[in-house]
Amino acid sequence: MPLVPTFRFETWLRAPAEKTQAQPKTTARNRNKKAPGIARRPKAIFRAPLDSFHMDPEPKFVKELLSEESLRRTGYFDHAAVAHWRKAYRQMRPASLPRLSVEMGLAAVVATQLWHHTFIDGSLTELPAWTGSSTAATG
Q1: Per-domain residue ranges of the chain
Q2: What is the CB-side half-sphere exposure of residue 82 using CA atoms within 13 A?
Q3: 71-103: string of b/e by CB count within 10 Å (b at 16+)?
């Protein structure tokens, strides 16, 4: 069985030119006229704005997850190194590759700490921890 039914394809081929509607041609020039601010801006990668986790005021849960006590409790990360990079991050030039790298690293630390809080030990922050399914599996 063909993907496109034959009768529809043949009908389209035989359609007179006056019945088909010409679509306006989209060119780079037309796009630039419609949105010059977007068309002329420099290229950038698409990513989530993670810097809000590390700027003042930071979310309470981030402060709790990256506290010395929480980092020592999980044992995944060195508190001194995390504290160093959190301070260094604020000194780096915005939108620079080094800052992006540190930002991604700190976001990974937050994500790992949050994972630990959610699934292993719910005492790292005031956020709720996972308690398992509320309904028993039947089978």
Answers
A1: 51-119
A2: 23
A3: beebeebeeeebeebbeebeebeeeeeebbebb
For 68-114, give the DSSP string: HHHHHHH-SS-HHHHHHHHHHHHHSPTT-HHHHHHHHHHHHHHHHHH
In the chain, what are the helix, strand and coil shares in percent, each to the nearest 5? 55, 0, 45
Task: Tokens for 109, please give them.
Answer: 């630390």
Which of 103, 121, 130, 105 lies closest to 64 in space, CA to CA? Answer: 121
Residue 62 DSSP class: H
pLDDT in tens, 70-120: 999 999 999 999 999 999 988 999 878 898 889 889 999 999 999 999 999
**pLDDT tens-digit series, residues 4-13:** 444 444 554 5
Which of 117, 95, 97 has the alpha carbon at shortest distance from 49?
A: 95
Return the ∠ at Cα 44 (arms to 39 and 49), rounded to 5°: 120
Its pTM surpasses 0.70: no
